[in-house]
Design goal:
Order of helices and strands: HHHHEHEHEEHEHHHEE
Strand content: 15-25%
Structural class: alpha/beta
Number of domains: 1
Number of strands: 7
Helix content: 25-40%
Strand order of the largest sheet: 3-2-1-4-5-7-6
Largest sheet: 7 strands, mixed
CATH architecture: 3-Layer(aba) Sandwich
CATH superfamily: Vaccinia Virus protein VP39
CATH topology: Rossmann fold
Number of helices: 10
Distance between the termini: 27 Å
Shape: globular
Length: about 260
């Protein structure tokens, strides 16, 4: 049965103006190494302006509405994994009231631009705002300190093993009644199949020489999430013309991480 929240999100996405076509990646190739994600995103950030460095700047309000529909409250602590240049931060900071927004990213350039964009709004945030440099696939946060973790357009750019590690540590950070909300590119979406086919024509070094899109399936993400200590609460299909990705909402499962 489709929830009212899911219907509202679908309707909101349908009313959203379609994003401009993504610009070709002009960032120089990066050699694979131990800090590949940081190197890729630093290169990408310095090669692009705000309008092209992340997809759909207009989607910040949509992301906030999704989180609110899934239980985010103004006094909560929200961890925005892969905050980029502040697409969500610029919306949520004014909406929150007494809570805390924590934006994390592997790229120093992205974090600096996010802080600048928020400051340029000229409004006093209704919450505490913190920016954290993301180091590896763990959160530099205490146990049980977050009400919600979001990862919009993050798991679409990393390997599934790293997704699992983020989810596993997120289970440590989340409060018992919290939620983890992420987007992904399951293969039932036609654009995902095009992305996969285009990637298959490249060599390994070419695929990981620039920020790439990683496709998946809902079954695989369900399995990874369960192993990491989560239960899938719902999937929210979105219109590929506008948001372009599918949303998954997780809740902590009893017993925590483990293979069963």
């Amino acid at each position: 049965m489709v929830s009212n929240a899911t219907v509202r999100v679908r309707d909101r996405l349908k009313r959203t103006a379609p994003p401009a076509a993504p610009a070709p990646d002009v960032a120089p190739p990066v050699e694979p190494g131990p800090d590949i994600y940081e190197a890729l995103y630093e290169s990408h950030a310095t090669a692009h302006a705000d309008e092209t460095v992340v997809g759909g700047l207009h989607l910040g309000p949509v992301e906030l509405e999704i989180l609110v529909d899934q239980g985010l409250r103004p006094n909560h602590t929200l961890v925005d994994l892969g905050c980029g240049i502040g697409r969500l931060a610029c919306e949520v900071a004014g909406w929150m009231d007494g809570g805390e927004y924590i934006g994390t990213d592997v790229s120093d350039t992205m974090l600096a631009r996010a802080a600048t964009r928020l400051a340029e709004l000229g409004a006093t945030p209704g919450c505490t705002v913190r920016w954290l440099k993301q180091q590896g696939t763990t959160f530099d946060l205490p146990d049980g300190s977050a009400d919600m973790i979001s990862a919009f357009s993050v798991f679409t750019h990393i390997e599934h093993e790293d997704t699992y590690n983020f989810l596993r540590d997120g289970r440590r950070v989340i409060r018992p009644d919290g939620r983890f909300v992420f987007s992904c590119l399951p293969m039932d979406l036609l654009p995902s199949r095009y992305i996969f086919e285009a990637s298959a024509r490249l060599s390994f070094s070419e695929r990981w020489g620039r920020v790439r899109n990683v496709t998946t399936s809902m079954d695989l993400m369900d399995s990874i999430s369960r192993m990491a200590g989560w239960e899938t609460e719902r999937w929210i299909p979105t219109t590929t013309d506008y948001f372009g990705q599918t949303i998954c909402v997780l809740r902590p499962r009893a017993g925590g991480p483990g293979v069963d």
